[in-house]
Design brief:
The chain is of the alpha/beta class. It is built from eleven helices and twelve strands. The longest helix is centred in the C-terminal third of the chain and has 24 residues.
Length: 305
């Protein structure tokens, strides 16, 4: 029996009723004691564990005396693994997918495999557990009622600054990952792009022996790393405070005024901006005048250059 996959218009074979299931299992990000009883039970009972790095995962399994066989499944081969995994599930085998640390698919391999298997109708279940993102947010002291997670920033400075610039007016807490050999440069780019006063929290080596959380202004945290090489070792979760809505409104008003004062008198520009933003005319007039003076000075400096 077959069914039509409406997303890609391909005919796919429906898994047999006796098909096994794939469990997505979260593993410790550092402290081995953080693994759940359910995760241990699943890893010990499945027929095969798909691991990002079998050598790394073997240490975890040996610690808990789990002898389940391992097979590599990483970003370079997971596309080719889909058919093999499907055949194992069709044969009634139960499998588990783990990454080197934390929850699979969260900036780790697995998305390609899970998407393909779900499209084919296989049963996939979550065995939740550790996540460096959630662990870092829980101790950062930054708002967590809403946050933006964007994984790793670009490796090169120019592209990294472009990526950071999208957070200029972001009201939610921003969560990013960064490596030890780029964290110092990343903070310098953050200061250049978002300002040295932007509040941040930097979680390092979470749940491990040298766990550290540095919190304060971007400039303060950057200074600590620049002066202490030990603080730039390990794996990092970088959290950036969002911009309060009041400041966001102010930025929107300034954006409107910069467009208007280029062609209109200050008073008229302020009147229009006040109507659009709902702010008091006198307050907006002061901002408009400051922008006008800034533009005039810029033109004067250019002529004298």
């Amino acid at each position: 029996m077959s069914e039509l996959n409406s997303k890609n218009n391909n005919v796919t074979q429906t898994p047999p009723e006796s098909a096994g299931q794939l469990s997505i299992v979260a593993t410790p990000i550092g402290n081995l004691a953080d693994i759940s009883q359910r995760a241990l039970q699943v890893l010990a009972s499945v027929d095969c564990i798909l691991a990002e790095d079998t050598r790394h995962s073997k240490r975890l399994l040996n610690h808990y005396a789990i002898g389940t066989k391992l097979r590599s499944c990483h970003e370079h081969n997971e596309d080719s693994m889909v058919s093999w995994v499907a055949s194992q599930l069709d044969a009634g085998q139960n499998l588990a997918l783990i990454s080197d640390a934390g929850t699979p698919l969260i900036s780790d391999p697995g998305f390609v495999l899970v998407r393909a298997l779900r499209a084919q109708g296989y049963e996939i279940v979550a065995v939740p557990g550790p996540s460096s993102i959630i662990a870092a947010l829980s101790i950062a002291g930054l708002p967590t009622d809403g946050f933006v997670y964007d994984g790793f920033l670009p490796a090169k400075s120019g592209a990294r600054q472009v990526a950071l610039s999208q957070y200029l007016n972001q009201p939610r807490t921003i969560v990013l990952l960064e490596s030890s050999h780029r964290i110092k440069a990343c903070l310098l780019d953050l200061i250049d792009t978002l300002g040295g006063e932007r509040q941040i929290a930097l979680g390092r080596e979470l749940t491990k022996r040298f766990e550290t959380l540095l919190a304060g202004s971007a400039q303060q945290v950057s200074d600590i790393l620049q002066n202490d090489d030990d603080q730039s070792r390990g794996e990092f979760v970088l959290m950036i405070a969002g911009v309060p809505e009041v400041q966001k409104d102010e930025a929107d008003v300034q954006h409107i005024l910069r467009i208007l004062v280029a062609d209109l008198p200050v008073k008229q520009a302020a009147s229009i901006a006040a109507k659009l933003s709902g702010k008091r005319k006198n307050e907006v007039y002061d901002i408009a005048q400051a922008i006008k003076d800034e533009l005039a000075q810029a033109i004067k400096d250019e002529l004298n250059a």
